[in-house]
Known about the structure:
Number of strands: 0
Mean pLDDT: 75
Largest sheet: none
Amino acid sequence: MMLFAVFGKFGAFFNTIPVPIIGGIFCVTFAIVTGVGLSNVQFIDLQSSRNILILGLSLFMGITIPKWFKGHPNTIDVGNDAANQLITVLLNTSMFIGGLIAFVLDNSIPVLISGTDEERGVIRWREQGLEHNTTEDDLLTLSSPSTYDLPFGMNVIKRYKIFKYIPISPTYDQNIFLRKVRPLFKRFKPKNNNNDNIDSEK
């Protein structure tokens, strides 16, 4: 895209591609993206009402919320044009809405109801990784593969640990992030009130 913006010849070349061919490329590309996305749920328990709720609600809201905002373009008004544009773009992106809802529900519902690692597919996912000669330590740390390294600046990124907490960083470590986030959800876990039981018995 940077080359397209600098050199007009690239844009002119792609403008010569017929629209039906571009449509066919889009159909194949997004079909593969959708299939790969759905393949990630192969390890979870789809008979669990918890997982069905998270999956269905994420897909449904990811479709309906952006559609509603496209029909109401001037709904967001926080007093700043840049912020309005940013929020509007995010709320018009189906992948962002669905992914955000799924992330919040999958990491909060286990605390309030039930959500074992087996039900969430974590155990089967680890076993599948071990079958492909992936060590258990690699699966626990979930460190990013070297294929995502940037062509330059990796020495600076690896030098500072702050980049391990940033999801878009090549050195992002999901295990470190979860260790920091999970205690926050555990604070909302309901506790058994033994004093109420004693009072009721009296």
